[in-house]
Amino acid sequence: MVQMSAFDFFEEYLEKPSLFKNAEALTLKFNPDNIPHRNQEINLVAQILAPALKTIKPSNIFIYGKPGTGKTVVVKDVLNNLNRISESKNIPLKTIYLNCKMNSVADTEYRVIAQIVREFGRDVPVTGLPTNEVYNELFSVIDEKKQIIILVLDEVDVLINKCGDTILYNLTRINESLNNACISIVGISNDINFKNNLEPRVKSSLGEEEIVFSPYDALQLKDILNQRAELAFNENSF
Q: Please, which residues have CB within 8 angstroms of residue 62's CB and are 6 or more apart in sequence?
């Protein structure tokens, strides 16, 4: 057997036609332009958040559903379109997405608030400040001008399990301390019973809108897999 050098292997590899047209279409982070079988959910989220385009605070939304039901991709799609519209029309709207499963972002209340502050371009130490001082930084930076802020907390149940529900209470009551800006929260959870474990004061401050994403059926899953395959692979390769 002739031994092939790594260089020769790479040369041969480059000469072979690729199976993939867009391999990213097979990853979890991929957001397709068209989201099959979620039109109703997209419209619901869009209707609730639409007042932000008229600088009116939207209701808080809590979105529930089992993993793999399209919750995150739907919310990101709506946010992307909100951002496109607001930027084209100079509407003072800012959207922030936090994945609460990431320890570097959401393993403590301090880190969550500090990360939100950083989203506005203000530097905050990773540790070291009292938590109330970080909240003061948050109030200061978001209230610098009239604007609507939509904060998405994905896997919010993980955050509450780590930090307790005080952070959620503080974030939902933050508008009482603001003069110019308003903040709305979109929470995403895999646990449909998530709110049952919250303190009554937190439940009452959340209020507002809830959307449940039902699981896809077999035919819908087949459609989704076919769509991803068509986006990911070159013709006649699957």
A: 156, 186, 187, 188, 189, 194, 195, 206, 208, 209, 210, 211
